[in-house]
Design brief:
There is one protein chain. This protein is 47% helix and 10% strand. The two termini are 50 Å apart. The protein has a five-stranded mixed sheet.
């Protein structure tokens, strides 16, 4: 998978299309690799290799592929005694282990909830068009619409007059919708300008898959609508962003911006509240709603600001009125086995110093029993209590509760 990123990367397109000057500022800040980015990189590499193995075998991988590969890996210790693609997969296992990640859980997750759905779509495409193709980690050239623009789509399927692009997101934070998603439109555009040029395309499908959330979101468009959007919206915004022009426009898109903690426009937006509106001393419901929206931005901005200031302070920079101190420390038992043995030798009953047996979490039990076995053995015992009420913005996909009175009645014990 690619290791370099464009100044105007498709993954950040919503941000630089909305706030054009942010792109040039971000380009001046070196990207830092975190535990999350390392995990995502390994997961993407593993998914790419697994899809290539699917193609090599000309069909789906067997149900217990991960278990069988783990046995083979342990038998060879991941050495070069396997076929090239399998050795490549072993390399990703090494990488995951080096980062103290569970490679087998990762492999099972990307295989079952990303690779299999993509390959199922490919097999269905072959059923409609025997000449259908599946391209893995397809490099995309976007310079015709984005200055120095490029990117890569995790998978592209082309059959008949249809082109489908896929994006794997390994994070398990927020579900991402493909509906009107500018990143996916950029990928679709790049595929149209690349391998899609050889086909008479009409229909475009764009799919985001988040395997750890078991979430798949798909949007559809047409060939001409994608080109119209690229000409009328993407290209003008990209040229402006590349030149560093335009106005700073803070908003939800600031979440992953590298310069967000120091952005004055975001600071002003996050802390604003029009308290002068109206003629009462107490806030109206409309003013409360406005404050709640601003509070979300304020929380996010303050978290980023504090993290940035601490990082720079640890590097030796000073912030007037602040100092770095040692945080609260929690006492720990360095050797639990030895401590338990000492208490046992001292004559204490085990029940007095050990917690009672506790069933592992549902996620751990599903891994132990596999999904089918878990349902057969423990499905009858699984319940899902009603979640606590939460006040969210109307754009949230969850349905609203029926009425305030019924909500209060349902949650009276919690209150």
């Amino acid at each position: 998978m690619p290791t370099t990123h464009a100044i105007l990367a498709p993954s950040a397109s919503k941000r630089w299309m909305t706030c054009p000057p942010s792109a040039r500022l971000e380009a001046q800040v070196p990207s830092k690799e975190t535990a999350y980015t390392k995990e995502g990189t390994i997961a993407h590499s593993m998914a790419e290799t697994l899809l290539r193995i699917c193609l090599e075998q000309k069909g789906q991988l067997v149900e217990d592929f991960v278990d069988k590969f783990q046995i083979a890996y342990n038998a060879t210790q991941g050495t070069g005694k396997m076929a090239p693609l399998y050795q490549e997969l072993a390399t990703h296992v090494h990488q995951a282990q080096d980062e103290q990640l569970d490679p087998w859980e990762m492999m099972a997750t990307v295989l079952n909830y990303y690779c299999r759905p993509v390959f199922d779509d490919y097999l269905a495409a072959i059923g409609e068009d025997p000449d259908a193709i599946l391209l893995v980690e397809q490099q995309l050239k976007l310079s015709e619409y984005i200055p120095e623009g490029f990117g890569s789509s995790d998978a592209v399927i082309i059959w008949g007059s249809t082109l489908a692009v896929y994006d794997l997101k390994y994070g398990k934070g927020v579900k991402v919708s493909a509906k009107n998603n500018t990143q996916m439109k950029c990928y679709a555009l790049g595929a149209i300008l690349g391998p899609g040029e050889l086909y008479d395309l009409a229909q475009i499908r764009m799919t985001i898959i988040q395997p750890r959330l078991q979430w798949i979101s798909t949007d559809e468009s047409t060939y001409w609508d994608i080109l119209k959007w690229a000409t009328e919206e993407l290209r003008p915004a990209a040229v402006l962003a590349y030149q560093g022009g335009g106005d700073f426009v803070p908003g939800e898109h600031c979440r992953f911006c590298n310069v967000a903690p120091r952005c004055k426009a975001l600071a002003a937006k996050a802390s604003q509240l029009n308290a002068s509106r109206g003629d009462t001393a107490l806030m109206t419901n409309e003013e409360i709603a406005e404050a709640l929206i601003n509070a979300q931005q304020l929380k996010s901005w303050l978290t980023g600001l504090e993290a940035y200031a601490l990082e720079k302070a640890l590097e030796g920079q000073t912030f007037p009125g602040f100092k770095v101190v040692e945080g609260r420390s929690v006492r720990q038992i360095s050797d639990q086995a030895a401590a338990m043995q000492t208490l046992e030798d001292a004559g204490f009953d085990e029940a007095s110093y050990c917690k009672p047996k506790e069933l592992k979490t549902i996620s751990d039990l599903e891994k132990l029993l596999k999904k089918k076995g878990f349902q057969e053995l423990l499905g009858q015992y699984v319940i899902k209590p009603q979640g606590k009420p939460a006040l969210v913005e109307e754009s949230d996909p969850r349905p609203a509760m029926n009425s305030a009175s019924s909500a209060a009645e349902e949650f009276k014990d919690i209150q």
